[in-house]
Amino acid sequence: PDLRAPYIMMASIGVDKPIGHIGQISTNYQFSHGVHLYLSRNINAPLPGTYNPDDPTSGIRPLGTDQNIYEYESEGDNVRHRLVVNANIHTQALGLYSNYALGKADADTSGIGSFPSNGYDLHQDWGRASNDYRQRLFFGGWIHVWRGFSLNPFLIYQSSAPFNIVLGQDLNGDNQYNDRPTFATDLTRPSVVHTQWGTFDTDPIPGQTTIPINYGKGPGTFVLNLRVQKGFNFGPPLPQETAAPLPPGSPAPVKVKRKPIERKYHLSFFAQAQNALNHVNLAQPVGVLGSPLFGQSTALSSSFGTGSANRTLNLGTSFRF
Prior knowledge:
By secondary structure, this protein is mainly beta. The protein is 0% helix and 45% strand. Strands 1, 2, 3, 4, 5, 6, 7, 13, 14 and 15 form a ten-stranded antiparallel β-sheet that branches. A hairpin with a 2-residue loop joins strand 10 (192-195) and strand 11 (198-201).
């Protein structure tokens, strides 16, 4: 087996820029190229053009036996581009931060457990990687809103991930059911299927183009968590730091807003909402064209702790002494 060690070549360039005296913004472009990535392959699959799906015993196998022989290989590749923007602002009234990433990832393997649709031509599976999220945003912070109340938002957005549309049939005899349909050219054929992602032919004929890997577009993810808190300070004041006296002839110090006096006891109450908007985040749809559930999500997404579609409210208190 070919098991050369995989490696990743990376390059990046970035620019940082202050936002006055209250924050900073940075932009970073990243490029990575993975080489010799792992995949699995049936090295004794029938030679191209020799297998008839209607006759499972047909096909000329290169090793002279009818056995399926599976092998781990390191022939995969991937390429990823990412533009990442980070920004943060801090004042006496608020502190906000954000991270936004715009990316594109292509690959011909998803790892050791992934089989190509055509073991004799890995390039047929070159396309969107299974983890190709084009956009991702994190936003959060704290805001003093009114009379000691503070607000802590935390927002997550992730654009849709691709999913593979397959026939659920083995058209080339490699014992893998990951063959993809073709773009329909004759809409009168009974094998044509109309979907929201396109019109496909489930019984490919010569001259038709196989749809790209991960051609489907699944649901995105959106989560908003929110926390509201109110605190009370009471009791004797804590010792305050005093500035050292200035030497004779020094300029007068700049007057700054006096900080609130810290006291020995602090009591706070809070209300916290997970998935405050009660948004349902769905898992990837079923991608098998022959399934009656094709295109439907049958589970909830597990990304970012979104395994529940329900809004969750928590009330609490804390006491510091």
